[in-house]
Amino acid sequence: MKARMKNPATVIPDVLQPIYALIGAVKKGGVPARTLELVHLRASQINGCGFCVDIGAREMKKTGETDERLFAVAAWREAPYFTDAERAALALAEAATRLSDRADPVPDDVWEEAARHYDEPALAALTLHIALTNFFNRVNVTTKQVAGSVKLEARADSR
Question: Are 127 and 31 in contact (CB under 8 A)?
Fold first, then answer.
């Protein structure tokens, strides 16, 4: 596989710094980093973003995530490895990623379960993180960014 072009965020110089700032602000929103990474991985799986699935899973592994949890993210409902708060975040991520799949894309029960586990700033961070992940997925899938093309050590948080 070959990318259609360089990552668009690197082609337009003024884009990267605001993206990094937004990512940094979201990470300060009160959601555990581990949960944000799970959400990123699940949304990226749904969107078929091989680049983000690859880098997300490798980064999670590097920070100590277990194989059991990594292997089970796509089937989190049937796996015993996730906390109730993580399950609520994953459900919200799936709903917010699959907006066109149902008439009420993010049902009240999904939102209310997330709100049971996260306060308003954390919900804001979680919602923004899901949106950012979908943004990155769409950019990377459209331009066919190649999985494994970025080394984690060299990465400055390009997703």
Answer: no
Question: What's the pLDDT at 150?
Answer: 74
Six-digit token string for 59: 């980064």
Q: For domain 15-143, which CATH number applies: 1.20.1290.10, 2.40.50.430, 1.10.600.10, 1.10.150.390?
A: 1.20.1290.10
User: Mean pLDDT, 10 residues at a time, over the chain (159 residues)?
Assistant: 91 93 97 98 98 96 96 98 98 97 95 98 98 97 90 49
Q: Which residues contact 148 (CB under 8 A, 6 or more apart)?
A: 54
Parse the chain into domains and list their residue ranges.
15-143
pTM for this one? 0.91
Q: How is residue 80 annotated by DSSP?
A: T
Q: Hunting for tokens 């990155």 — which residue is that? A: 136
Q: For residue 77, what are its two tokens?
A: 């409902």
d(CA 4, CA 13): 19
